[in-house]
Amino acid sequence: MVAFLLPVVVSAVVIFSEHASGVADIARFPTYVAGHPLTNMLLGILAYLPVAAVVPLGLYLLARTGQDRHDLGLEPPTFTRDVIPAVGLGLAALGVELVLIVIVHGLLINDPSLFVSPSIAHIPKYYVIWGLVISAVTAVTEEVLVNGYLITRLGQLGWTPRASLILSLILRTSYHVYYGIGFIFTIPFGFFVTRSFQKHRKLMRPIVTHFLYDAVLITISILVH
Q: Which of 45, 99, 134, 213 could potentially form a cystine with 90 if both were Cys, beta carbons 3.0 to 4.6 Å apart?
């Protein structure tokens, strides 16, 4: 977990510090080569892949103690078992987030700098491919490690489901601090996918939920920009 969390948390803190100090804006689509959007997209995908480097290690360590992919519910997704429940989980998280937005609306108006939103440059529509790949890598990485590995290990150590849930939410939100106060909007999603895994032990369901949630939001941001 340290191998996974340390790089992403440090990166989130650095990004937020740069934005807060006015050094740089948070760019969702960074530019590596000026004037070559396709090259930038491909390099952006390559630059993001190392995020998933610890996933095989986590699965290997779990398998050594008897938690193979079948025990984790890491099976090929089906429409009725995974996709439909995933849509329900995503909509539930989105509904709670909308309520949170209403609650903090006054705070965001009084001090908009508390909420940080990544800037989106003018990019070709085919960057949807980038969004789908990034969404898939993020979904697999976070859910395998924060749900499959962490929740399983905490249970083996005697932690209660509630205590495990709280710690997982703290860790899950820690690498979203670059959103400023907006990190609180990640809590409902984390709650629903973690409770889903705790109750059903089907890791593929949170993975599908995470992928669909991120993919839809990123695709909309690209197509309507």
A: 213
